[in-house]
Amino acid sequence: MESGFPAAVFTLLGELPKETWCGSDLYNLEGFWYASSLLPAIMAARSNFRANDCDVFLTSSMKTGTTWLKAIIPTIMNPVGRTNDDGHDPLLKHHPNELMPSLEAQLFKENPNPDLSDMSCPRLFRTHVPYHMLPETVKNSACKIVYITRDPKDTFVSLWHFFNSLITAEGNDPWPMNEAFESFCRGVHVFGPFHDHVLGYWKESIKRPEKILFLRYEDMKKDPKEQLRKLACFLGKPLEKEEEVDRVLWRCSLERLKHLEVNQRGVDPWLGFDYKFYFRRGSVGDWKNNITDEMKEKLNRVTATKFEASGLGFGH
Ligand code: A3P
């Protein structure tokens, strides 16, 4: 196979523990599960990416509200986002994925050494890799890391809906929710285990709060203005006027984004996913409409055990 990736990467794939998940193979590297289509890029980014102090990294496990922040962070950082010039809002023409490129799904996907020299400061990136897999310069430079997480029950439900929508849109059978649930509780899912992912960033954010801002989807929904102000200050771009806060929140709202043509009709060119699947209900507690009491209790037990003594919790 012709590729710029070292052959050793593909040899390694054959040696890693493997599980089938939602019809695809996942490989376990250093305790976390990755899709084979992304693992070479993840390894290349880890070795070859060089962070600048001005960079901003959005990090998350999947389906925790990342798309909301993929819209908010560029809006805060981009001077146009802060003016009342709605006509030039980049979100009108671009899905949030395009405003914060992914290391593994975009920049390093086809090329282990992409030329990023034409990106100007502040560079905005995102990744789903766990903390320990971040490139060393991301951890050690002065760049900022924003982490977003969410109640594991809502995360699971969102994950199931997302992948189930993708596979049924391609004419495949639905993904049995029980099967997906058991895998999630075992930590077998793309970029899982969820709880270990959260803990890695949580612990680091306690040690270095000036470096990593740890956000929860539930707090964003409950008090979006306060969370937005906190985020803007962390990024060194405080929002002073109430109207600026309102404008950013409106531009990045689920209601607005999900009805924009680009998001209704567009397709992610790197992943092949319809953009519309990134926007669903966006509510807190949607698990109540989707999983049984027994499933709730099981996942709560996993969460309590994993987060014990960490100071982290999501309520019940
Ligand atoms: P639901 O599936 O519960 O509706 P991610 O962006 O990490 O893939 O997470 C997807 C979840 O975030 C989905 O949750 C989606 O509806 C929600 N979401 C997407 N854009 C949002 C926005 N602008 N505001 C709030 N929630 C949003």
Please characterize this protein's 3D structure.
This protein has a single domain (7-306), classed as Rossmann fold, CATH 3.40.50. The protein is globular and about 50 Å long. Strand 1 and strand 2 (24-29) form a beta hairpin. The termini are far apart. The chain is built from 15 helices and 7 strands. Strands 5-4-6-7 form a 4-stranded parallel β-sheet, sandwiched between helices. It has a 3-stranded antiparallel β-sheet with strand order 1-2-3, with no helix packed on it. The mean pLDDT is 95. By secondary structure, it is α/β, with parallel strands linked by helices. This is Sulfotransferase. Residues 55-310 form the Sulfotransferase domain. Belongs to the sulfotransferase 1 family.
Provide keyphrases for this structure.
316 residues, alpha/beta, Rossmann fold, 4-stranded parallel beta sheet, 3-stranded antiparallel beta sheet, 15 helices, 44% helix, 11% strand, binds adenosine-3'-5'-diphosphate, transferase, Sulfotransferase_dom, P-loop_NTPase, EC 2.8.2.-, Sulfotransferase
